[in-house]
Every structure is written in structure tokens, then in C-alpha cells.
Design brief:
single chain, 3 domains, three-stranded antiparallel sheet, 12 helices, flat, RNaseH-like_sf, RVT-Znf, nucleic acid binding
Length: about 350
């Protein structure tokens, strides 16, 4: 009615339904209506008529199924607020809210640093309480101060990632899908606690005249992250990189349930024979590759082992090289009964 510009006072007289203008699954609009409303033909031409007869009903075009819910109407009329990708990372159920609050205020530039107080009209001589060599601002205190950089350099060594950021919000990019849920928590907790304890060290220096060495601060960060990780039920992946990360923060590894458990039994070779179990693998195809093998006799006694770093290669090539090295090793040892 709105598209055809039908006057409001005529709406109550419109009693016909859509099904009255459909005949044999095709539009059948009276000529008088097409003459009165020329745009009606173009409007109906863009509407596909279903092959099956359906009951007429009102549909909400802004939803995928045509149903209108209270949530749909609210989202349609409300003003979209700011969306922060880091908000759910900071406010984590396994991170104490007191620490999340400090990180959140820092990300919003709401902490009472000298720069922020000056913007509010409270002017005072400014000096960073940690390095005592520059004006105190949110950017300087948490990112460019020598004291803070020592903390971030330590975190870089733990994560094997460069933690030099232009903005504190960039730090939370480290929490990504490549990590398991437990390691994502550890990374988030480490970043939040780094911010919290830097602010703690600043307050201790300014108000209590107590200097805390940055290495002591690292011990506090590890203890806080360990508490968050060990109290969590999240799972970790079974790989060496995540194991090393969790070990650095003294967090026990929660393994996920195995999708399928398959029993594998090793059988010794027949009498007077030697068996070699060899394998090759690559990280990527091609990628960093290596191969190795283990020799045992009919009594399951250990006879020898080998391992070689092949470099950049494919998994097939690593498998073949592993088999060839096993044969060469057996030949050099004079093991003729070898398999």
C-alpha cells in the first residue's frame, strides 16, 4: 500500500488477499488495477510465486524466516553501539574482575595517569614513576617505558612472538584460533596481568615510595596466570608448543577427550631376525622434515636408534629417506636378517 501510494483513508476498504490475484500459480491482476497503479506490474514481476499453495501470513523481511520476535524488533530500532573485539577477551570468567577492570580502563584510556588528569583540568608536574625519565601517559606507561618493555620482552620470549605494540589493543590479537581454548586463556590472562601489575608497580612507586624490580613483577604475573589456568576446565591441544607455554606459566595441561582410541600392539620379529620401526614426517607439505627409526631383536632388546633432520621436504620424501637410512644402517652393522 505504501509502495503504491494508496491514500490512508482507503486502507480499511482493502479486503482482498494475495491469493485472490493468483490463478494457476501465475499473477492474475485485473486490468483496472494495472491501469490505476502502473507500478503494480513491475512490483509483482519481481515476486516468485511458490509451487505449493501456502496460507497468507505477515512476514518480517528483516529476519531469515519471516518471524518477528522481540529481539528482532529491538535490534531493528535500537542504535548500534560500539563493538570491541577485545571486550570478551578481557572480561573472562577465569580472570579476576579486579584485574580485568584495570585492563579495561587502560584500553579506554580512563586510568588516572598524569596525561588523563591534565585533560580533566588537574594540571601537575608529570614524570613516569617507573623510569623517571619521561612524561607519564597511558601510551608511555604501558608500552614505551623501559620498565614496561622489559615485561613485554619477557612475554615475547614465552610466546615466541614479538610483543612490541603501537596500541595496547593490538596485544589481544595474540588470542586467535591457532591456540587451544586453554592457551587462549593463558595468553589473555598474561596480557591482562601484565597491564595490572605495571599499574600496581607504578602506584607502589608513586604513593608508597616502594620500587619493585621488573623481575619480581614477572613472578607475580606467573602466579596470577597460573591461578587462572589451573582453575579453568578448558582443554589444550596435545602438541609441544602448547605444552611448553603452559609449563612456563606452571599450568597443568587439560587434555581433551580422544575422538577415537585405537589399540596398537608391537610384535617382536621371529627368532634371529631384527625389526626396525621407522617413520618420517614434515610440518607442511613441503615443510621442515625429519625421519627416525628404532632397532630391536627377537627378545625385544634395544639395538640402536637413528634420527635425521632432512630440512625442507615432503612427507613422502621423509618416509622414503627413513626407510633407506634404516637399510643402510642395518647393512653397515652386518644385520642380514633384517626387516
Amino acid at each position: 500500500m505504501i509502495s503504491l501510494n494508496i491514500p490512508q483513508h482507503l486502507h480499511t476498504f482493502l479486503k482482498a488477499k494475495v491469493k485472490h490475484f493468483i490463478d494457476n500459480h501465475a499473477w492474475n491482476i485485473p486490468a483496472c488495477l494495472l491501469l490505476a497503479y502502473p507500478d503494480l506490474h513491475s512490483l509483482t514481476a519481481n515476486i516468485t510465486i511458490p509451487l505449493r499453495d501456502n496460507v497468507d501470513r505477515r512476514c518480517w523481511k528483516h529476519s531469515h524466516d519471516g518471524d518477528l520476535t522481540m529481539k528482532d524488533s529491538y535490534c531493528f530500532h535500537c542504535i548500534t553501539g560500539q563493538q570491541f573485539n577485545w571486550s570478551k577477551i578481557v572480561w573472562n570468567i577465569d580472570i579476576p574482575p579486579s584485574k580485568s577492570m584495570v585492563a579495561w580502563r587502560s584500553l579506554q584510556n580512563k586510568l588516572p595517569t598524569d596525561e588523563c588528569l591534565a585533560l580533566r583540568g588537574c594540571h601537575m608536574p608529570s614524570m613516569c614513576s617507573l623510569c623517571e625519565s619521561d612524561l607519564e601517559s597511558n601510551q608511555h606507561l604501558f608500552l614505551t617505558c623501559r620498565y614496561s618493555q622489559n615485561i613485554w620482552n619477557w612475554l615475547s620470549s614465552c610466546l615466541n612472538f614479538n610483543c612490541q605494540f603501537n596500541d595496547l589493543k593490538e596485544a589481544f590479537v595474540l588470542c586467535n584460533s591457532s591456540w587451544s581454548p586453554l592457551c587462549n586463556l593463558i595468553v589473555a590472562a598474561a596480557i591482562v596481568n601484565c597491564v595490572d601489575f605495571i599499574w600496581f608497580a607504578r602506584n607502589q612507586s608513586r604513593f608508597n615510595d616502594k620500587k619493585i624490580h621488573w623481575r619480581s613483577l614477572i613472578n607475580h604475573i606467573i602466579a596470577a596466570v597460573s591461578l587462572s589456568g589451573n582453575n579453568s576446565c578448558l582443554k589444550a591441544k596435545s602438541n609441544i608448543s602448547e605444552f611448553a607455554l603452559l609449563r612456563k606459566f606452571k599450568v597443568k595441561m587439560n587434555y581433551g577427550n580422544a575422538p577415537k582410541i585405537k589399540e596398537v600392539l608391537w610384535q617382536p620379529p621371529i627368532l634371529n631376525w631384527i625389526k626396525c620401526n621407522c617413520d618420517g614426517a614434515s610440518m607442511g607439505n613441503p615443510g621442515s622434515s625429519a625421519c627416525g627409526g628404532l632397532f630391536r631383536d627377537a627378545n625385544s632388546s634395544f639395538l640402536g636408534v637413528f634420527s635425521y633432520n632432512i630440512g625442507i621436504s615432503t612427507s613422502l620424501n621423509a618416509e622414503l629417506i627413513g626407510a633407506m637410512v634404516a637399510i643402510e644402517t642395518a647393512t653397515s652393522k652386518g644385520w642380514s636378517n633384517f626387516g
